[in-house]
Amino acid sequence: MTKTKKNSKVYLLALVPFFVITFLFEILPLINIVIKSFTPTGGGGFTLEHFVKIFSTRLYQQSIWNSIWISVVSALAGIVIAFLAAKAANAASPKVRNIFTSVLNITSNFAGVPLAFAFMILLGNVGILTLIGKNYGIGFLADFDLYTINGLLLTYIYFQIPMATLLMLPIFGGLKKEWREAVGLLGGNSFHYWFKVAIPSLLPSILGTFSVLFANSLAAYGTAYALLSNNIALLPIRISQQYVGEVVQNQEFGCALALVMMILMVISILITNKFQKRGANA
Amino acid sequence: MKIKTHLWDGLILFLVAAFLILPLALTFFYSVFTEWMDILPTGFTLSFYAGIFSDGAFINSLLRSIVISIVPVVICTIAILLVLYVITLYVPKLEKYIEILCNIPYAIQGVILAAGIISLYSGKPGFLSNRIFLLVGAYCIIILPYVFRGLKNMIGALNVRCVIEAAQVLGCSKLHAFFTIVIPQMKRGIISTMMLAFTMIFADFVVVNMIAGSAFRTAGIYLYQTMSKSGQTSSAIIVILFITTLLISTLTLMIQNKAIKSTKGRKA
Amino acid sequence: MAYIEFRGICKSYDGVNQVLKSIDLDVEKGELVTLLGPSGCGKSTLLRSLAGLEDISSGQIILDGEDITNTPVQKRGIGMVFQQYSLFQNMNVEDNIAFGLKIAKMDKNEIDKKVKAAIEMVDLYGKEKSYPSQLSGGQQQRVAIARAIVMEPKVLLLDEPLSAIDAKLRRELQEKIKRVQKELKITTIFVTHDQDEAMIMSDKIHLMNQGVIEQSGKPVQLYTHPVSKFAAEFIGHYNILTPVDLTAFFPEKRYPGNYYAIRPETFMLSKEPIEDPAYLTFDAKVVDFISRGNVLRYTLQCKDVVFTSEVLFRSFALFEPGATVHVGIEEHNLLRLND
Questions:
Q1: Does this complex have an ipTM over 0.90?
Q2: Per-residue model confidence as pLDDT tens digits over B20-38
Q3: C25 pairs with which residues across the strands?
């Protein structure tokens, strides 16, 4: 009697759904973006015209610049506010900290179109604060223009804060009380503690948080679209414009723009990974 | 000195919380008053809520949102569970490749993925250009990293290999053991991961706007279209959507905390 | 023909790392044998190959006259208890124990009866409805044992089941396992790295090292007559001495071979010169001593050879460090080792 070793690979069938999904909706679209970026509008052949257009047209230069600018500034603002808030929350009583964390958890769900709308009724042309500003002669409220890149920046900062603070809170939890005591024993003051010990040890995590926030606002779309429709030079808006709306669509050009944005994303992710690794080693 | 720091900390927390709550609270008040021309609004009413709940179009869009959020979550979760079955029990080496595939979506969030999908499939024959099919696929990819990470951490906390071996020795097949012993142990983790993924899709605007647009009006699209017509109705919609999301994510947090507690108890 | 036969079992990962090097091993029906050895010696792998959880590169495994080398795990009729707690967390004690019987589609009443008997056997009466997370480690392993024996397996495999359990409970469980094994007369293979545990539990010990069986025998046999340096070091606190070392003790004698083992308690220490002609004698200096409960362990030195000796703690025979003692040993306690 010879029994042959059962060595069937039937279990590999279990991988089929996953690979079908990722192949159809991740790999192929990704390859497609790269190929179409170098294909002339309408198809056929190879071209760099889309990239030439992107980097030589004012609108697209401006879009790239604005996207980077708004992402960097909102991330920085988010970090600074989150740093102060997390530091304060860390020092606060558990009860206050819990309430504050709940506020963060709740408001971190408030983004996209609803957020844009909330700011419109707050600071739009007939927004409540704008009206109050007008009625009581408070200049900066009355004259605040929400429908500009600066107005948009405010909404971006808004959605960065909860996320940034939620990411920073556990980082602050990692600061050891002993360090502060050690600095004190060695004759240092609070300035020494923060600038020589705490911030340097937090830095990798802070930079990691920064790039998460950067990617977060780079990809943000709903808020900007709801607020300004297609009237703003911002990468995601310019990309979607090639696919939706009445304007003549140019899918190949859209792919080239998407590729540019993807490269920005990848850079920020690589930076995150680098800092996270360093943070883990430290 | 000490008291000063406390005041300063308290002030920061208060200001940040106030800034975060203000737009949210305002949206709510806006939805229950007819007029708001000065500091205080006037004319309390619930008519806007009554209005949208009697509006079949809104209810339908809400149902669409719910269905289009559930379907990809279920598909993605099943696909990932099957993958985890293979990588934990048969081919651990595969894990790093799967992980790469599951992390790529971080780099092609929202608009990039949508652009890639439409420019590939629009105009293709048959089901491939079906907007809803594309939407489901796109959402599967959007939530992929989160579902993978959530489920993998969950399964990593269990002693899967040993438990499966114990079941095998008792005469049970690997697959049967995976579904009757391992998955039930992960129940809480699976549910909370699915709910997190659900809220992500539920809040989506960019993907649905680019892939389906007005062809598949979800609550997000409905809200966008209502915004230019009625401010108060829009804010009522926002409040409803927001409360839905909040309920689900609160529930998720609760389930997660319980799941963490029960795995801890298990290890002790 | 033995009940279980391992024939030329080889196992290697990636073709280079040989974990098992052509192992031949017989286990008789109803025996409790132990595979003893340091971690990485291949003992668990050998056990798992019998269970079918590990593929072997070559060789043959026969159980009860049947070649099971290629039989799937599920069909081998084996019970197993693992080192890690492997209870099904989503099932209570009863359901855990009944799991295998349900898979085998046994009659419900029959299952209830058997489960009850198994629970009684491992003293878990009253815990039927508890979940594993509510049980201590020791209780969990008892459930695991019940879950295995309720299947009436041809052989019970225990893969370091007690290594995660603290010392005191461990003793108790060792007794328990031994009692259950004798009661059911179930053929059992026990894997451990703890030589005390092996001594207490086994009818027979197979000492393994680097993929081979170094020595097999009854516990006493292994303890009193280690055949190799490895066995001597692993089993007891043997003094391992070279022929040169022995010449330091007895300058007029010459010893062949490479190593000799001397059990610490075979040395006789005395203040007076030893007259008994059965003993070889020499003088040594006390370097140090420690008390291990009822035993005193001396570190002694003769010329430049340091060795240990153990004597029962009797207050009148205490040697202070620095003192010179007369040491005697019977020649048959100088065990020549194979390597």
A1: no
A2: 999 999 999 988 888 776 6
A3: C6
